Amino acid sequence: MITPGEEPHDKTPAGSADGPQAVGVEDELELFLRLSSEVSVPITARFAYCTNDPYAVDVVFDLGMHEPVRWIFARELLAAGMDGPTGEGDVLVWPVRERAVCCLSLASREGHALVEMPSGILARWLKRTHRLVPPGREAQFVDVDALSRYLLHGAGPDG
Fold first, then answer.
1. H-type helices in the chain, by residue range?
2. Contact (CB, 8 A) for 141 and 54
3. CA angle 127-132-135, nearest 5°?
4. How far apart are CA 13 and CA 8, in angstroms?
5. Rounded-to-integer distance, Cα 106 and Cα 123, Å
6. In whole angstroms, what is the distance from residue 104 CA to residue 117 CA?
7. Residue 54 DSSP class
8. Phi/psi at 154 (nearest 5 deg)?
9. Do 83 and 94 touch, CB atoms closer than 8 A?
């Protein structure tokens, strides 16, 4: 778990023998689930970013209940939400500077959650992802051949 002052870990997943190896950043971050205006509870979530899906952040919330809850959304949305309100629909992000947190609102048919993340921890985590794939250069990391195979034949990255 990442706490203030710690750096996230780089992760190098196994790649295929004939393709470039994917590199990523993955860590458990301590967040707060807002239950009411006065009450929040600490939770952990696994934040993952991988160069083979350079536009997306994969977040898994394990609340110790039934199944973990997984959300995938744009890395750019988190980064922009550090500076001001952004997003529409199911995922909204905005800073609360006086409390040094960034809020993440997630809505689905099953319910709604408001999560607060310490801004410093999120900023450091995003910085690591930006070192791997600088903002604006994501298209250079997309494997168009693999994407075409998947769309046409349903074949995954290994064939």
1. 75-81, 119-132, 144-153
2. yes
3. 65
4. 16
5. 20
6. 8
7. T
8. 70, 15
9. no
Q: What is the pLDDT of residue 158?
A: 53
Q: Return d(Cα 105, Cα 113) in angstroms, integer.
A: 6
Contact between residue 131 and residue 124 where contact means Cβ atoms under 8 Å apart: no
pLDDT at 146 over 70: no
> Which residues are paired to 117 by β-bridges?
102
Task: For residues 80 and 111, give the distance between their C-alpha atoms in angstroms, rounded to a whole number.
Answer: 24
Residue 120: predicted pLDDT: 95
Q: Does pLDDT of 9 surpass 70?
A: no
| Cα within 13 Å of Cα(111), Cβ side | 4
Mean pLDDT across the chain? 81
Residue 148 has pLDDT above 90, yes or no: no
| Closest to 10 (Cα-Cα) out of 29, 23, 22 | 23
